[in-house]
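Technical appendix A lists one of the benchmark inputs used to test multi-chain prediction within the project. The record comprises two sequence entries:
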Amino acid sequence: MSSETVFLWLVLVVAAGTYLTRYLPFYIARKVAVSKWRSGRFKAYLEHVSPAIIAALLVVSLDSAMISTARSLLSTLVGLVITAGSWWRWRNTGLSVFAGIVGYAALLLVLR
Amino acid sequence: MNLQSSPGRVFASGLQSGLPIIAGYYPVAVAFGIAASAAGLSVWQTLLVSVLVFAGASQFVLISFLGSGVSLLGAALITLGLNLRHLLYGTNLSPQLSTLSTRDHLLVAFGLTDEVFATAQARLQNIAAHRRFWWLLGLEVAAYTSWVSGTWLGSAGGNWLAQQLGLLQPALAFALPALFFALLLPACKGPTLRTVLAALLLTAGFQYLGMSATGIFVAALVAPLVGLLWH
């Protein structure tokens, strides 16, 4: 096999693997009655899974460059505080994210 | 989103909800395009990866496979291990998307990235059940379009583009933490606050050990137990 053919197979395998992890839960859920998902302790557990995943994604998304120096750490903290303040003021996710980015960038510029 | 909203309006609302994701995806997609070019991939090969895979972490890992002699089975296992957390995304969203047909599930599953899941989880409950497909499709189209076009920009523009972005690149990179933080804030009360704190600590610990993907999976499974049992 040429290197281009191997590359194409690699892409297809990775694409199929990624897609399967996203689709299989829907397929399984169709086989299991929805009422079972919504009942008792499992329902309570599922309600906590989403915030847990988003919290984990928050940690992972904080690139090491954002917390590696005092300047970047301060900018990150201020950006998050502005994001939180904006969210509590307007309850608008898009606006809060935009305000957070502006605050973060502004502080990076000021502290340069 | 009220019951009278047309599919077109709901789709547009989904696109609009994707704006923070677009801001966060562009710098990462551009970086992927640049990295792929540096690894020797042509523009069309790089685009093919983003078009078919649409998963940041998997794509960067794929680039690292090039020339490493890794087997197809090895590639499949590594990718599956990296994406195990996606099993929880579909599991968690399934009750809210139970009215969708098999065809609709097949379609929306493709675009279920970390950021799409986080946004959908927070917003779907405010959308009428029979319109959720269109809203989610709009959100995914916004994310997918920005990812693929950003990849093309990075691949075709190369390092020149990275230099031109200057301060904008780190500023836009902050979009994803800001998005996750904003989506997390409504959950920061009562028992879920304990879950959130446990997840933050667990993930930080695993990240310190260089096992971020495992950390997400462990935090998703263990932190809810802490939140529910720790009174």
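Chain B has two domains: 7-185, 188-231. The mean pLDDT of chain B is 86. Comparable benchmark entries are summarised in Table A2.
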